[in-house]
Each structure stands twice: as structure tokens, then as C-alpha cells.
Design the sequence.
């Protein structure tokens, strides 16, 4: 036998003769949706950052330590309303122009919140022979879960560490208006 089921909360009421009532719940502010003691959803939704305002020059020299790629445009800032784990991703296309048939180049990329760092994605090229000048492009994708024990505004940045390069004219992250994807970052809460 079906019995009446009623659910009330500020802003909505649901009732019916079936105990299986379909409802979509979206937390507001610092709210959460729970089933018993288990948190199902938090207000901290998906945060995105897309930058298509101009290519970002990486250069060809070497870095002595990891350096911000672009502290404003290659970074995502979001609010952590409750301590937990947040998955941060970054996607961009790198372009490298060579000036001789024999070339080599290395750049390591990582994500950092200033305290914790993702493992690096290493772009390492070495070639002997081939065209005297050419352009190579590659997709850069980083994915890391940061654990935040405090609430508030958090910023995660893309950093680089350039190694030695030979016969490389330029390295650039393609993020201008001709590359519609540009530099794209996300941050999403994945666990308590």
C-alpha cells in the first residue's frame, strides 16, 4: 500500500501518494544536501576559468626554479566553503618553433596552490635531422586533487620550469582569439 509522503523545507514542499518522490536539490550559500550523515552535495560547484585574451610566451631560456606562467591569466581562484578535496585541471596547447634540424627542449609544467604541487607534466623534445625550421604543437593537460583544511578563497596557478634548449626560437601557450579553446581551468569539490 502506498502511503502519503511529504517533504518540507524553506522554499519548497513536495507531497504525493508514492514514497518515491523525484526532487532535485541544490545547496545554497554554505549549505549541503545530506542523506543521513553522508554529504551528497555541497554548494562548492564547478568553477571554471577560460582565457583567450592573448598567447602566453614561455620563452627559450632556463628557469632556476618553478615560475608562474601568468599569475593572472593562468590561474583559477575559487571559494572553499568547507574543508575537503578539490580536483583542479588545466588544459592548453603549447607551440614550439625550431630554428634548426637538430634541436632539444624541455619544459615541466605543474599546478600549485603555493603549498602543494601536482606532479609535473614534462614536455621533452629531442630531434636529429628533419626540417631546418618547423612548428610543433602539443596538448598540455594537468589534473590534481588538492586537499584544503581551511575555508576561504584559494588560488591554483600553472607554473613552468624551463630546462636547457637548443635551436628553439620560441615556446608559446596558445590562448588568443584564434584558438577558441584557449587556456581552460576547472576546480570542483570531489570529497570531504
Sequence:
Amino acid at each position: 500500500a502506498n502511503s502519503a509522503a511529504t517533504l518540507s523545507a524553506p522554499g519548497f514542499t513536495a507531497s504525493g501518494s508514492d514514497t518515491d518522490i523525484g526532487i532535485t536539490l541544490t545547496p545554497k550559500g554554505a549549505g549541503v544536501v545530506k542523506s543521513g550523515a553522508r554529504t551528497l552535495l555541497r554548494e562548492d560547484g564547478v568553477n571554471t576559468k577560460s582565457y583567450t585574451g592573448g598567447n602566453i610566451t614561455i620563452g627559450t631560456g632556463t628557469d632556476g626554479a618553478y615560475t608562474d606562467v601568468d599569475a593572472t591569466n593562468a590561474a583559477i581562484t575559487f571559494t572553499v566553503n568547507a574543508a575537503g578535496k578539490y580536483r583542479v585541471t588545466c588544459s592548453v596547447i603549447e607551440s614550439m618553433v625550431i630554428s634548426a634540424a637538430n634541436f632539444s627542449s624541455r619544459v615541466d609544467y605543474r599546478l600549485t596552490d603555493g603549498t602543494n604541487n601536482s606532479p609535473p607534466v614534462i614536455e621533452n623534445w629531442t630531434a636529429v635531422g628533419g626540417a631546418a625550421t618547423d612548428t610543433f604543437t602539443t596538448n598540455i593537460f594537468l589534473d590534481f586533487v588538492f586537499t584544503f583544511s581551511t575555508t576561504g578563497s584559494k588560488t591554483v596557478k600553472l607554473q613552468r620550469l624551463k630546462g636547457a634548449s637548443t635551436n628553439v626560437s620560441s615556446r608559446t601557450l596558445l590562448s588568443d582569439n584564434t584558438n577558441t579553446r584557449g587556456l581552460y581551468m576547472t576546480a570542483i569539490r570531489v570529497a570531504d
Observations:
- Residues 87 and 184 are 14 Å apart (CA to CA).
- Confidence is low (pLDDT under 50) at residues 1-7.
- The two ends are 39 Å apart (CA to CA).
- The first strand starts at residue 5 and ends at 9.
